[in-house]
Amino acid sequence: MDDLERQLKNALSRKQAPDWFEAKVLAAAARETKVPAAFWQRLMAGTRLRMASAVLASAAVLASGLAWQHERAVRERAEGEAAKAQLQLALKVTRVKLHKIEQKLDQMERN
Amino acid sequence: MKIACWLLIALFPAVAQELKLPPGIDKLADKATETVDVTMDQSLLQLASRFLSDKNPDEARAKKLVAGLKGVYVKSFEFEHPGEYDQSDVSMIRAQLKPPVWQRIVGVRSRKDGENAEVFLASDGNSVTGLAVICADPKELTIVHIVGQIKPEDLRDLGGNFGIPKFEIGANHKSDSKEE
């Protein structure tokens, strides 16, 4: 039992790291930060940004296109309805006048 | 030169059937108690036609009529007192509605009421290409000018055929002129 305790104490005791250890760790860390991102990673990052921009731009164009089309349809409908009303009024006046003339003719024929 | 002559001849009916209204006629609106002023060229007629329903019989008839038209112009003024418009304005319009393009098919004049109505048709020799109506009553002036192909049945739909079973446009055309 004492032997086991001694072995554990030895194993868990604080040991001074060798001199080269710190330098090796620092060198490894420095190397890791200097490694440039792989080409495809850079490409993908750029593509994602471009795609997001393109999607946003397309959505904006689509939205403004739809709004313009809606406004145009509303304007065209209003113009069309106004033109229809004008036409119906013109035909009504014509109809009334022609009818009146025909009635007058009939009345004259009877007399 | 020959081409120009042919072009002139070809365009003559279209130009001749144009009706120039007296320049001051729109000022009558200031005196009138009621005014109707409709000016529709072919593009406006086509736009209106797109909004006419095929299901509604009246609109379907109007749509059929409008299909052949190039213009519809109506000016109608109602006045409170007689003699508020100038008879020379009417004479100026009437002077343009002359043969060979225009034929007066109906003329009604009532000495008693002072009413005066005339119906003119323009033709290219084969078909009716225009209709003009002048109603010059003491307290009312109405000028209707319809440009384009008008079939007899369209005219009937408009208000009557004046007892003329089939329009025969040309030199032998019958003019129904009556005076009361």
Mean pLDDT of chain B: 80
| Total strands of chain A | 0
* Structural shape of chain A: rod-shaped
- How many structural domains does the protein architecture of chain A include? 1
Question: Quick summary of this structure?
Answer:
Chain A is mostly helical. Helix content of chain A is about 90%, strand content about 0%. Chain B is built from 6 helices and 7 strands.
Structure notes:
The complex is a heterodimer of chains A (111) and B (180). Chain A is mainly α and 111 residues long. Chain A has one domain. Chain A is 89% helix and 0% strand. Chain A is built from three helices and no strands. The longest helix of chain A has 72 residues, at 39-110. Chain A is rod-shaped. The model of chain A has no long low-confidence stretch (mean pLDDT 86). Helices cover 31% and strands 33% of the residues of chain B. Mean pLDDT of chain B is 80; it is low at 5-16 and 162-174. In chain B, β3 and β4 form a beta hairpin. The relative contact order of chain B is 0.17. Chain B is built from six helices and seven strands. Chain B has a domain at 35-40 and 70-161. With 180 residues, chain B is of the alpha+beta class. Chain B starts with a helix and ends with a strand. Chains A and B meet through α3 of A and β1, α3, α4, β2 and β3 of B.
